[in-house]
Amino acid sequence: MRITTNDRTSRALSPPSLMARLAVAVTLATVLSAACDIHTPSAPGSVFSIAVTPNVTLGINATQQFVAVGKDAEGRIVQITPAWSVVAGGGVIDNAGMFTAGLVAGTFANTVKATDRGVSGFASVIVTNVLNNILGSANTYGILAGSTVTCAGAPGTINADVGVSPGSTTTGFPPCTITGSTHLADATAGSAQGRLTAAYNYLAGRPCGTTVTPADLGGRTLAPGVYCAATSMGVTGTVTLDGQGDANAVFIFQIGSTLVTGASQERLVAGRQLRDARHRDDVPWQHPRPHVDHARGQRHDAWACAGAKWRRESRHQ
What is the pTM (predicted TM-score) of this model? Predict the structure, then answer.
């Protein structure tokens, strides 16, 4: 039997031609499928990236709340519960992302870290020498003592908090009064003592810029800097602290033993009229022994060495 085939049909169904036609068909189907596809966004997926903000410049002991935002691979926000840490120094951070700058100035790149499910984000901090709230948690205290606080005689009023740690004793209250809170040998007083010690050590460790000779600042005009005296230092007259137009100007006074002050007088400090430079919260006086105010007949204990907070001190005789 002889079977005759159409040459045209045979060629059309031969393997090379068939493969070419199948390839064209598949390509056309793909194009049509892509053109007709409607993408439906899926629910937010796994954490792909975490952004931590802000990158910030802070003064010593200043605080900053950091925020972490998680996103999936398509850029959609994902709910996260970040674990916060500091990995390159510059300060400390709590579990809620509140950062407190340390006492060492510098640039701390990618130091604030937020991590969730193995994914991390970072932010950088610059700490400057501006003494912004150097006392930190001790800022509300009028007196911080290690063993006891004694009011030698009424009337006497402490218009601030009082803390004792590790001791736990106050004597003479009443008749003397404390308008703030009193913390005796508790965690709050201990924390404040820690901040006070850190502030004192920072101030005591600044290199002396000018040795005060004679050791009395009365009648002088001073530029920003660190001033020191090996023993006592006096402020028995008007002192002008000239900030030279810098609102963040820093004046530090390091005293070997006792700070002796006279009558308060009007003076110009950093371009503003103030009643008394000793009443400025941002002018630290570092001295390890009591401050004697002859004009007021008052003795102020060594807690004040970390900051000029004279308006908050006790007024006992």
Answer: 0.57
